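tl;dr need the bound structure. longer version: we got a ligand (S-adenosylmethionine) that a collaborator sent over and nobodys looked at where it sits. i said id run it. heres the input, straight from their email, havent touched it
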Amino acid sequence: THFGFATVAEEEKASKVRSVFSSVASNYDTMNDLMSLGIHRLWKDHFVRSLNPGVRTSTTGPPEGQTILDIAGGTGDIAFRMLDHATTINRDSLTKVIVSDINPEMLGEGKKRFSTSPYMHAGRVSFLEANAEDLSAVPSASVDLYTVAFGIRNFTHKDKALAEAFRVLKPGGVFACLEFCPRLSNSLMNGFYKRWSFGAIPLIGQVVAGDRDSYQYLVESIERFPSQTEFAGMIKDAGFLVPGERNDSGELEGGWEDLSLGIAAIHKGVKP
Ligand code: SAM
């Protein structure tokens, strides 16, 4: 607020998000597969491929590797793909990922998954418990690539998180976000999709994870997230270069990629 106090609604949101992810942590990966019919894997693969982690920008001098910060990294799905891509496609064994999340239970699942992987032993993955709105543990201009997948809609102050993303990135560094969209552009398809998400997802949550409320929250949080145009505008307002033009009503058009008819989208911005 004006006086620097969080409102009751803001505190309620933050504590709701905490309890939702603490309770879903152990079932999170299975539930993701069930709720998205496995499609989240294809979106994540595409997201990572489009960022081409570990690519060398200079052909002279020794390889340096990239520093990737995966915010709201949870169980490490994006981090794993980043390191696999850098290693197998770009033959890069130096790129490192910092998996950061506000929730220790989600990070715990990520640590468990990485514990037997060669990336852990090679020191190419580390874990940071932090709120995306305050990344004071991460130095300014130290990151090449900032990723956030299915996380930003849970943040109370998205503008603060974007400002922190801008601060920690190096000039030329890339901000990339994979997130659900509040509605599909085709209204008929949107009707089917909303019936599926509001009907089936809380029910699957109840039957499989014994937790209807958390999954009801997840569906509702998608509904409240800004449209693709609004979100592209927010990224631009944070200082990033975003491809696309402002239309007559001042909204930014273009600058993102819709996935599966706009169920999800990838937004990117470059720090000048
Ligand atoms: N990125 C992972 C993926 O794609 O599978 C996990 C996504 S999960 C739906 C959302 C994550 O956002 C949770 O792990 C949650 O703890 C985290 N989160 C929520 N609010 C956060 C905040 N303010 N700062 C950092 N992480 C947050």
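gonna send this back to them w/ a short note. The radius of gyration is 18 Å.
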